[in-house]
């Protein structure tokens, strides 16, 4: 199956001689859902930033849709939900409609704004467009930000801690949406989380990173070995959520 993302021997340094992450290599196949796990400060967000060109690798290569990131120009093919988006954007005096318009790529036909809001679970999407961002709850805001990432019909969706600032009910809706986008639209999704328990299936594909420690494989294998403790650097206990969908996504083989 074709790889949408190819990373080889990635290392990123924000200061000379100090690597935030290093020795990272992985592929994300078309139509797959994969998760980047790891403790806070382990480099998960840095990897996503390297994938969108926000940070420059100190070593290694990054390819998107078969092209080296230095040559990649088709950024409409990627939707990105940054970490802490609600904390930043909720202070802006703009409406949901204005946010979605601002995200649309010039020269490309974007998804209808009402339809994309319905896609992420809003029934009264027309009225929602008029609401200011600061009036939204944490769960509503996170789904609006995901809608903004979908407005240009991307093929790859990058989610950085999308369940942050969201209550348990909101977490269920966000994770159900992730699987809906993958299962019903074939979207390739790479999601960062520090919370192992939000992943619904033990045979999910995971990338576990903590600076210079890296693991890639199935969550079931990670949880049943010493690898999780090795990467995190301490013993990890998990508590499952009850949101798990009734059907598995196509990426689970």
What does this structure look like?
The chain is α/β, with parallel strands linked by helices and 253 residues long. The protein contains 9 helices and 10 strands. The longest helix has 18 residues, at 168-185. It is globular and about 50 Å long.
Write a brief caption for the model.
The protein is α/β, with parallel strands linked by helices and 253 residues long. It contains 9 helices and 10 strands.
What is this structure's SSE topology?
Layout: E1 3-15, E2 18-29, E3 33-37, H1 44-51, E4 59-64, E5 67-68, E6 78-81, H2 85-89, H3 96-103, H4 113-119, H5 125-128, H6 138-150, E7 156-160, H7 168-185, E8 188-192, E9 205-210, E10 213-218, H8 219-223, H9 227-232
Parallel strand pairs: 3-8, 3-9, 6-7, 7-8
Antiparallel strand pairs: 1-2, 1-4, 4-5, 9-10
Major β-sheet annotation: 6 strands, mixed
Overall helicity = 25-40%
Poorly predicted sequence stretches spanning 5 or more consecutive residues: 241-253
Q: Tell me the strand order in the biggest sheet.
A: 6-7-8-3-9-10
Q: Terminal Cα separation, in Å? A: 12 Å
Rounded radius of gyration (Å): 18 Å
Strand and helix order:
EEEHEEEHHHHHEHEEEHH
Helix segment count?
A: 9
* Mean pLDDT over all positions: 85
Strand content: 25-35%
Shape: globular
Structural class based on helices, strands and sheet pairing: alpha/beta
DSSP, total strands: 10
């Amino acid at each position: 199956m074709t790889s949408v993302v190819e990373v080889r021997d990635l290392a990123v340094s924000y200061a000379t001689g100090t690597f935030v992450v290093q020795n990272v290599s992985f592929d994300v196949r078309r139509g797959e859902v994969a998760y980047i796990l790891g403790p806070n400060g382990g480099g998960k967000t840095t990897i996503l930033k390297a994938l969108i060109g926000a940070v420059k690798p100190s070593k290694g290569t990054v390819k998107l849709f078969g092209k080296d990131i230095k040559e990649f120009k088709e950024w409409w093919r990627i939707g990105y939900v940054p970490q802490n988006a609600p904390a930043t954007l909720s202070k802006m005096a703009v409406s949901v409609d204005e946010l979605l318009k601002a995200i649309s790529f010039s020269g490309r036909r974007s998804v209808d704004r009402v339809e994309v809001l319905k896609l992420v679970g809003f029934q009264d999407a027309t009225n929602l467009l008029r609401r200011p961002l600061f009036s939204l709850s944490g769960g509503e805001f996170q789904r609006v930000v995901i809608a903004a990432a979908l407005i240009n019909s991307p093929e790859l969706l990058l989610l950085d801690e999308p369940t942050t600032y969201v209550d348990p009910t909101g977490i269920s809706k966000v994770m159900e949406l992730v699987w809906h986008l993958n299962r019903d639209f074939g979207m390739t999704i790479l999601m960062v989380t520090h919370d192992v328990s939000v992943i619904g299936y033990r045979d999910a594909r995971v990338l576990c990173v903590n600076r210079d420690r890296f693991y890639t494989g199935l969550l079931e294998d990670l949880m049943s070995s010493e690898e999780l403790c090795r990467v995190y650097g301490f013993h990890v206990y998990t508590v499952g959520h009850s949101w798990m969908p009734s059907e598995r996504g196509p990426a689970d083989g």
